[in-house]
Write a structure and sequence with these properties.
Blueprint: H1 29-32, H2 37-40, E1 49-53, E2 56-60, H3 65-82, E3 88-92, E4 96-99, E5 102-104, E6 108-112, H4 113-119, E7 120-121, E8 124-125, E9 131-135, H5 140-157, E10 161-166, E11 171-178, E12 181-188, E13 193-194, E14 204-205, H6 206-209
Parallel strand pairs: 9-10
Antiparallel strand pairs: 1-2, 1-5, 3-6, 4-5, 6-9, 7-8, 10-11, 11-12, 13-14
Length: 226
């Protein structure tokens, strides 16, 4: 009996931004492509976070356990502070859609009731909340995204205050609006207390915020990850 030879065809599925045509694919393809919010619906539900900033797609993996612990703890502290007066609400990883080509999911946001009434539409934030918080993930690309790309985005789009949390180092960088920019005003570490003029009376000791989270200052520069 002769051997039977079976040929297999491998099909690779590539997702391109909407509006991309064969004519656009050439030497200038990388600079011509711009992703939009509509493209995000074409990706599989694979646990990855996909964000679009100025038409560029950023993909990050599922965050570290302690990254998520920090987000839940900070969100809870903000809501506990605001509950007696109904000052506003915190949210973890909400959709924040400034425009079709600026569509992100910050780790934590806080917005006053007054602002929420203007910017919350269809379950998504459609303009800047007062406060945005991002938690650094390991890897140079992830760190640059939060410290440079998102800093510029949030400044351009009207965020009043931006916190960058570095959970392995138990540190928080604080940026506040000065005209058209978000400028650094403090880097807080162990023993410090987190406060903000946006949140009168809010005072959160960092030792309590990071309690139970291992102090591992060398971890932040590791391989790119979520």
């Amino acid at each position: 009996m002769s051997a039977r030879h079976i040929a297999y065809t491998v099909i690779e599925i590539v997702i391109l931004p909407s509006g991309t045509s064969d004519q656009k694919q050439g030497k200038s393809m990388d600079t011509a492509l711009r992703w939009t919010s509509a493209d995000l619906a074409n990706f599989p539900e694979d646990g990855k976070r996909r964000e679009i900033i100025d038409g560029e797609l950023f993909v990050s993996t599922q965050p570290h356990f302690y990254h998520q612990v920090f987000c839940g703890r900070l969100s809870g502290a903000l809501d506990t502070w605001g509950a007696p007066t109904g000052a506003g609400l915190a949210a973890v990883a909400p959709g924040l859609i400034f425009a079709d080509d600026d569509d992100v999911a910050p780790d934590v946001t806080w917005a006053s009731r007054e602002r929420l009434a203007r910017i919350l539409e269809g379950g998504k934030l459609r303009a800047a909340p007062e406060l945005v918080v991002e938690v650094l993930s390991p890897g140079r690309k992830n760190i640059l995204r939060d410290r440079e790309t998102k800093l510029k985005l949030y400044a351009r789009r009207g965020v009043d205050e931006y916190w960058i949390a570095d959970w392995p180092r138990h540190a928080i960088e604080v940026y506040r609006r000065d005209g058209a920019f978000l400028v650094p005003v403090a880097t807080l570490g162990p023993g410090a207390t987190l406060t903000s003029p946006l949140l009168p009376g809010f005072a959160l000791p960092l030792d309590r915020l990071f309690a139970g989270i291992p102090f591992a200052p060398s971890a932040a520069e590791g391989d790119d990850a979520g």
